[in-house]
Amino acid sequence: MTESEFQARVIKTLRGQYCKVIKFNEQYNIGIPDLMIWSPNHQAGLWMELKVIKLPKMDKTPIKFGISGPQKTWLREWHGCPHRSMVLVGCLYEGKVGWFIIRTASEDIKVPGLDIEITREEFISKLNFEKVSIDKLL
């Protein structure tokens, strides 16, 4: 699965939940996330960077998400101004598309924010295989 395939899947699912989704393909301002999502039901916006990874073979191998320095800076600085920001990681596991959220200001992972280290085994245990839901994202 490519990032553009994952992006198309996420956009289609969220638009089906009455969300407004703006896709960015910014070449001049580095670090801008892939999507801006607005949910009228939640009165909230969400900056979302999308990443697709290939899982390593060994369970104890740490996963590298490929979040660049400018992306980290942008997501951290814009979180709460007035919207939230996050990274949505997608991957194929046993033929199914799974997803995992990295929140910019997170308490559910050992290292706060975007500098997380997680093993393959831990990542698989946190994968979600349901359709992406705005309720779960916000």
3D structure, described in words:
The structure is a single chain. Strands 1-2-3-4-5 form a 5-stranded mixed β-sheet, with helices on both faces. Strand 3, helix 2 and strand 4 form a beta-alpha-beta unit. It is built from 4 helices and 5 strands; from the N terminus they run H-E-E-E-H-E-E-H-H. Helices cover 25% and strands 26% of the residues. The model is unreliable at 106-112 (pLDDT under 50). It has helices at 3-15, 69-78, 120-126, 134-137; strands at residues 20-23, 35-39, 44-52, 84-93, 96-103. The protein has 138 residues and is an alpha+beta fold.
Task: Set down the secondary structure blueprint.
Elements: H1 3-15, E1 20-23, E2 35-39, E3 44-52, H2 69-78, E4 84-93, E5 96-103, H3 120-126, H4 134-137
Parallel strand pairs: 3-4
Antiparallel strand pairs: 1-2, 2-3, 4-5
